[in-house]
């Protein structure tokens, strides 16, 4: 009997040797005359277990991990193909504590199915959302998305239903659906995991959007650092086209990004898609009125589109029932940095930062105490341990001068120099600035200089005041959030870790931003 073996083909697993492990298993199986079929699934997101090898048995799938290529002969000898005992045997992966704490909606199929098999996608519930949208029509589809409370997962948390309705209500001969897969935030990888691990989910979400707003063409804009995701999306789009899922009614083109952080900003992304240098456009007009090639355009993040099929298939009520405050449904949180159980965790909004880092994440990998956690990418605030009770929720984070952004959580342990981190934030802004407005273009360069002076103990108090003023100017004077949000990491570092800036007063210094 042919035994199915699952080894992720996801970038994260490949980076730690999944291809070599897959290559080592086939000859070992041949040696003992065992017929096997290796499925290169997506990652389940428990990165410390990658490469995670799973075997399909009568009791379900049994996992082993992390497996190195030279462990393969012993693993096969131990009875891998029947789920035999081995020091790296994990049992059923879904029974591991890392997964028991999760509620997987968007990532329900990721790591389970063959990402390139449309048949498997459908066998595991895929396609039901689009079927439902077709049966209820455009207006009811938008209503369902609005009712679900879904907010854009790209960072700003804008209600997706309202965005779709604006495009639907804007008269035009041609409209576009654009998927923002630029994913430039530090510590984030959820978009990539969907594209590599369940690409038909994104295709289905975009097709539902096309139907809802009256667009026949969609683009997926993927960052250039994601070659495997580009390949996975291109293959899935071809399959979907051959199947008729994509075609005359709605088709998708995959484009590779230009390689700049600012190209993730929606208007800059549109410039880049149009073949120009990615620069931020002043709003209004909103992309929903005048977007790609001057036409009404929906731009959503990968996770926003990927949440929609479930909302349609199971009804908005099941989605809205999960969450906290105005943050409804689940959020794929990405745990990175000095963390023991790093990876992808999908949980309903409302879980506390402490539960995420200490309980699901298992604390630091180094064993040193956590000192700071940056949430929301390079423009997110640094939170000290005393703010670990903050619930994961857009408003709760904003109330503490933070943001959840795209759900990236990067953990720093004792030893991190927070003044160096603040400098890094300013330098990042200076390097990535599109150059269109002065507070960001010039302010970030001056910001690096001022932090250098503070660190060198040059007129420290005066320069801290200059830094605070500069951050205010950047926050209120910048055209987009790149310059406008850089004060969050900088001032949170000053406020919560004043000792790293040479400030010895017990009171936190600097104004909250
Ligand atoms: C500098 C900058 C970079 C951004 N990068 C991304 C990104 O990589 N992916 C993304 O979805 N949104 C990014 N955004 C947010 C987008 O401008 C936009 O709000 C989002 O794509 C809208 O989709 P959503 O409503 O589904 O969140 C970025 C914003 C800024 C200011
Ligand atoms: S804030 Fe920076 S990235 Fe944004 S428009 Fe201004 S110069 Fe460009």
UniProtKB/TrEMBL annotation:
**Classification via CDD domains:** TRX_Fd_FDH_beta
Q: Which residues form the signal peptide?
A: none
Keywords, A to Z, come to: 4Fe-4S, Iron, Iron-sulfur, Metal-binding
Q: Which residues form the NADH-ubiquinone oxidoreductase 51kDa subunit iron-sulphur binding domain?
A: 419-464
Q: In Gene Ontology terms, what is one molecular function of this protein?
A: FMN binding
Which cofactors are reported in the record for this sequence?
Answer: [4Fe-4S] cluster; FMN
Please report which protein family the annotation says this sequence is part of: Belongs to the complex I 51 kDa subunit family.
This protein is called NADH-quinone oxidoreductase subunit L
Species: Phenylobacterium montanum
């Amino acid at each position: 009997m042919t035994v199915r073996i699952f080894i992720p083909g996801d970038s994260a697993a490949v980076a730690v040797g999944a291809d070599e492990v897959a290559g080592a298993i086939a000859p070992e199986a041949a040696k003992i005359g065992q017929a096997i079929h290796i499925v290169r699934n997506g990652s389940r997101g428990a990165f410390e277990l990658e490469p995670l090898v799973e075997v399909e048995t009568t009791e379900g799938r049994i996992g082993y991990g992390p497996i190195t290529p030279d462990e393969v002969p012993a693993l096969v000898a131990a009875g891998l193909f029947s789920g035999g005992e081995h020091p790296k045997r994990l049992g059923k992966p879904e029974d591991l504590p890392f997964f028991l704490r999760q509620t997987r909606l968007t990532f329900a199929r990721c790591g389970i199915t063959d990402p390139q098999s449309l048949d498997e996608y459908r066998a595991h519930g895929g396609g039901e959302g689009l079927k439902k949208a077709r049966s209820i029509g455009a207006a009811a589809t938008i209503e369902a998305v609005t009712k679900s409370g879904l907010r854009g997962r790209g960072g700003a948390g804008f209600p997706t239903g309202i965005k779709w309705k604006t495009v639907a209500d804007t008269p035009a001969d041609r409209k576009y659906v654009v998927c923002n897969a630029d994913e430039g935030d530090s510590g984030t990888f959820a978009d990539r995991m969907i594209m590599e691990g369940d690409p038909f989910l994104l295709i289905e979400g975009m097709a539902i959007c096309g139907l809802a707003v009256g667009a026949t063409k969609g683009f997926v804009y993927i960052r250039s650092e994601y070659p495997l995701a580009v390949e996975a999306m291109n293959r899935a789009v071809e399959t979907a086209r051959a199947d008729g899922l994509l075609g005359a009614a709605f088709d998708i083109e995959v484009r590779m990004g230009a390689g700049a952080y600012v190209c993730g900003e929606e208007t800059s992304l549109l410039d880049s898609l149009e073949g120009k240098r990615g620069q931020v456009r002043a709003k209004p007009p909103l992309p929903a009125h005048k977007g790609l090639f001057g036409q009404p355009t929906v731009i959503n993040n990968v996770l926003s589109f990927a949440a929609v099929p479930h909302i349609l298939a199971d009804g908005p009520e099941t989605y809205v029932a999960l969450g906290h405050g105005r943050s409804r449904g689940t959020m794929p949180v990405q745990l990175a940095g000095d963390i023991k159980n790093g990876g992808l965790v999908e949980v309903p909004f409302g879980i506390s930062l402490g539960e995420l880092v200490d309980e699901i994440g298992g604390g630091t990998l180094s064993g040193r105490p956590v000192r700071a956690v940056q949430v929301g990418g390079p423009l997110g605030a640094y939170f000290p341990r005393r703010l670990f009770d903050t619930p994961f929720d857009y408003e709760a984070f904003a109330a503490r001068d933070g943001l959840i952004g795209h759900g990236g959580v990067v953990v720093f342990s004792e030893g991190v120099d927070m003044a160096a981190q603040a400098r890094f934030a300013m330098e990042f802004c200076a390097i990535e600035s599109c150059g269109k407005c002065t507070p960001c273009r010039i302010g970030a360069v001056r910001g690096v200089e001022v932090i250098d002076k503070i660190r060198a103990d040059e007129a420290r108090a005066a320069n801290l005041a200059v830094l605070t003023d500069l951050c205010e100017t950047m926050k209120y004077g910048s055209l987009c959030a790149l310059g406008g949000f850089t004060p969050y990491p900088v001032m949170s570092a000053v406020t919560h870790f004043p000792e790293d800036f040479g400030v010895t007063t017990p009171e936190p210094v600097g104004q909250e931003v």
